[in-house]
Amino acid sequence: MADTSSKKSGGFGETLSVIVQAILLAFVIRTFLFQPFSIPSGSMRPTLLEGDYLFVTKWSYGFSRYSFPFSPNLFEGRIWDGQPERGDVVVFKFPPDPSIDYIKRVIGLPGDRVQMRGGVLFLNGEAVPREKTGEINNPDITQVNRPVDVYRETLPNGVSYDTLDLAPNTMGDDTREFVVPEGHYFMMGDNRDNSSDSRFNVGFVPHENLVGKANIIFFSIAGGSSPLEIWNWPSELRPLRLFSFVK
């Protein structure tokens, strides 16, 4: 007679082994390769919208304690260190509370002088080219029911991106000159009049706080819907944003 109990035991053990291996593989992928991230606010509009789900490449800037779940204090600084470039869209830990993830664009590198004057960005005393490209009259992109001016900025390294100008003469349009300390970065949102960034409470972002570079949008849904609410896909899915690169 066949020993059915050993077969059952072996089957359970194999299933448990597969589950453990899958968990370990997911841990390795999330820690060292790609981390999914959902956009929590409108500060990066029009580049990123609430309801965008994207992959962050973890290896882009090396690895720090914040690369790991629960941010264990295993070491200081970064391993396989990599430097961000101006214009990179980066996920980082909020300096006053590292339990919170933020996503902004790198504007100032260590040693840079950054200032806003009349809505124009100045880097090291030079105005960053800013060209009005038109208007957006789409509440899903602007969050307001009126046309909003769009300006394209081009940083000294050639990186270009669109910014929203919701209103003239707002608090963030005129600032003091910030001098970025060594080992830190100056971050700003593309939605210049509705972004909590280095001009305000975020401050300078330490290199250690960088989590990774925003790379590709793999899913996008409007209306505050969850990706699991498949019944909302016909009306809320943004198909043109699927598998688009973050620029």
TrEMBL record:
Location within or outside the cell: Membrane
Chief place of localization: membrane
Transmembrane segments: 12-33
BP terms from Gene Ontology: signal peptide processing
Active site residues per record: 43, 104
Top class in the EC scheme: hydrolase
All residue ranges annotated as the Peptidase S26 domain in the record: 14-219
Highest taxon of source: Bacteria
Keyword annotations: Hydrolase, Membrane, Protease, Transmembrane, Transmembrane helix
Family stated for the protein in its record: Belongs to the peptidase S26 family.
Entry-linked NCBIfam families: sigpep_I_bact
Name of this protein: Signal peptidase I
Annotated source species: Limoniibacter endophyticus
